Amino acid sequence: MAEEDATGVRHWNALAIGRLNAVIYAANPLLTLKFRRRVGYWPNIADPSRYHEKMYWRKAFDRNPLFGVFCDKLRTKQYIRERLPAIRIPETLWTGAEIDESVYALLTPRSILKSNCGSGQVLFPHEHARGYGFTRRTAWWWMLSRHGFKTYEPAYRQARRCLLIEEFHPAENSDPVDFYIRAADGKVLQVSLLTNNKREGKLVAYFDENGQRLKRMEDGSAFWLPPDYRPPETFSAAMDAARTLSRGVDYARFDFFSVDGELFAGEITVYPNAGLTRAGDDPATNIDTLTNLHWNLRTSHFMTMPQTGRLGRYQALLERQWGDRP
Q1: Quick check: 161 and 116 in contact, CB under 8 A?
Q2: What is this structure's pTM?
Q3: pLDDT tens profile 69-91
């Protein structure tokens, strides 16, 4: 009788999950089609088990208030400052809604222009040096655009819509190095190390938290750093900083950069690549699949906070469905 009851519960759960997936597909048809085209499969969003499904689930259900902080560059700086008061953070030189000639005069070879409320919206010195007209038009477009709308990244809606000018530290004695650190609740999962990031000649390599290179992730193209490359001395400090910042967060990407031996804190990314990279199956050769081994949605804000109404029933459904699933 117990086995029959368990079978009935599993059947009911599967039916409820199937119906919820249909609702999510119908509510977000373009995003779901984009997911199928870019990622490579039709997602099970209601009961996610793969990396990209979890990212879609985060967009649809998880309203962690920290996500709104992380999607706002100015608030992210304050978040980092409160938790790591000793780490260097690029100084904000100006904030405002538009660029005029007096503001453009603040842009020098040692400053950059950013949008506070969007990812990838930055002008480095060699770019804003193209002139006032180009810079003003670019900033105007940033303020007009709704970042994350097409790929449904809802936490960006909470970010203050403004521009900022930030101090820039050009490397003088070595290539600048960026650390993109994927971490989950105090644990570093893996690191993307980039030299000359967002510039000509960018090179990349993947490492674990101990600085050991994950060479099986690479495909042998010229895109990768030389085989004998060694991370800078700031690597260990960046790992410690990421562990501190990630405590209490089920998963995010924590960015740092190193210039001539000095470590700076950067941004925190809630939706890396909008969760729309190509899927892989082998954690030894695919960075997202490796991440997924350590991303536990049981520790997410949605699952750890009491939910009410339909969301409460869905939370209970997931708890039954997941059971002892690792």
Answers
A1: yes
A2: 0.93
A3: 999 999 999 999 999 999 999 99
